[in-house]
Amino acid sequence: SLERMFYRHVFDNAIACVSTTDEYYLALQKYRKDAIRIDRICVDTEIFNENINKSDRKKKKFTFFAPQRLGLEKGYDLIWNAIKLCKSDFDFLQVKWFVESNQGATAVTDPNELSKINKALYENAPSQVKFIPLIDHKDLGKYFAAADAIMGEMRKGSKSGIEREAAFCKKPVLCYSDPNKKTILDGKKIESPFLPKSRDPNELAKLIDKIVESKEFRDDLAAKEHEYIKNLSTPELVMKDWESIFQTAHKKYKTINRKTSFYENIVNYLGLSFEKFYIKKFREKNIQARGEKEYEMLTRK
Question: What is the pTM of this model?
């Protein structure tokens, strides 16, 4: 299509192609021998830090908090099975949010089948689970501060925004960490301290019980995760990595201006025109439709 041709033209002519995940980096290397990997990803430390004020929500017992989307792709089948095996007493706060789509599907490919599974996960949550409304991102840190521990995803094997932000608040975070996926920082391979190291619900259940019952264990885990995330996501360190990429590119290419053929000018013009049209006519409509569907799901009794 014209859109694909436009993006391929941009990709081929970019002076640098950077990936912030190891999965995308491996794919990128197939098409660009000069692909760059940068593992550091920024966290807004004004919103997420260990001194943030707690939310005024009252809690009666040890509380896990999970603000991520509920779904198979996040490993909630594993989380629910683990909770049912736990021996300790706790509450599990889960935002009431799940999407009926095949986004991120790993166990099934049929969107309709995945929708049924996600709905079943919502309807058959363990008794410890208490659903709460969606939270504005700017207020999320307050909920991290008020919780005793955070539950992250259990399928992908790497850290998303939720896990990084919670660790910056110095809260113990449970998140599946694939031991084969090492973080590369300043040229060194670093293993993540996040637990568990497998997707086994039995192991996760034991970790949950240990988090609940041992203050020493959860404080030690929180400290290790906090130190790791500080090195990974402190804004100043992220900026330093990107600045290095820009400086290298600037030395190699003194200007981004270059002579282009008549054909390339036509492709650029048509591509940009189509992009504007596509955003206005199609993406806005899709976003609106998806938003209406999600709102209906969240408000359905």
Answer: 0.78
